[in-house]
Amino acid sequence: MQDKELFEAIREIFDENIPFNRVLGLNVASLNYDEVMLKFTMHDKLIGNYKRGALHGGVISSVIDVTGGLAAFMGVLQKHPHYNLQQKLEIFSKLGTIDLRVDYLRPGIGKWYISNGYTLRTGKKVAVTRIELKNDNEDLVAVGTGSYVVS
After folding, report:
1. In contact, 27 and 40? CB cutoff 8 Å
2. CA 38 – CA 16 distance, rounded (Å)
3. Which residues contact 77 (CB under 8 A, 6 or more apart)?
4. Helix (H, G, I), strand (E, B), or coil: what is residue 88?
5. pLDDT for residue 48
6. Cβ neighbours for 11, distance < 8 A, ≥ 6 positions apart
7. Considering its fold, how many domains does the chain have in total?
8. Which helix (H) or strand (E) holds 4?
9. Model's pTM, two decimal places?
């Protein structure tokens, strides 16, 4: 199986099939085994501080969690190149968040945002990821570390 086919299947799942990702407006901007990047556009339903027009903290943590989960998934896939497409996608159904730490560095003010994540370690049962969320001015809004069960 070609990576391109796999990456397109993953992109479709994340962009179209996960209802919460659609609520947030998340789209896969780039995807490979080493790093994932998600993008979303600011809109009124994501505002937490209506005076400043800043992102809600729950949106920030959710985006960091989703990005970390996708990075963990990619880390696991890299360890199983011999799996067919169905076997690789089945791994996704076993993935779950164990722990998430988010550091909010500045208010989430911007027109759009990019989150990127990568794995720090992928084991047989747990993957640990690091995530950054930046606004359209490339200001670092928040960072996170996530642990995910992957088996």
Report:
1. yes
2. 13
3. 6, 33, 83, 88, 91
4. helix
5. 95
6. 28, 31
7. 1
8. helix 3-12
9. 0.94
What tokens were used for 150? 């992957």
**What is the rounded CA–CA span in Å between residue 72 and residue 110?**
27
The candidate with the shortest Cα–Cα distance to 76, out of 15, 133, 128, is 128
Q: How many angstroms separate the CA atoms of 86 and 67, rounded?
A: 22
Q: What is the CATH number of the domain that holds 24?
A: 3.10.129.10
Instruction: Look at residue 132 in the predicted model and tell me its pLDDT.
Output: 98
Question: For the packed helices 3-12 and 57-78, what is the interaxial angle rounded to 10 degrees?
Answer: 150
Q: Find the farthest-apart pair of alpha carbons in the chain and give their distance in angstroms, rounded.
A: 52
Contact at 8 Å (CB) between 25 and 36?
no
> What confidence tier does 151 reach under pLDDT thresholds 50, 70, 90?
confident
Exposed / middle / buried, residue 143 (Cβ in 10 Å: 0-12, 13-18, 19+): middle
Q: Greater confidence, 80 or 126?
A: 126
Task: Look up residue 69 and give its two tokens.
Answer: 């989960």
Task: Give the C-alpha distances (Å, rounded to integers) separating 60 from 7, 15, 50, 133.
Answer: 25, 18, 15, 8
Residue range(s) defining the domain that contains residue 22: 3-149
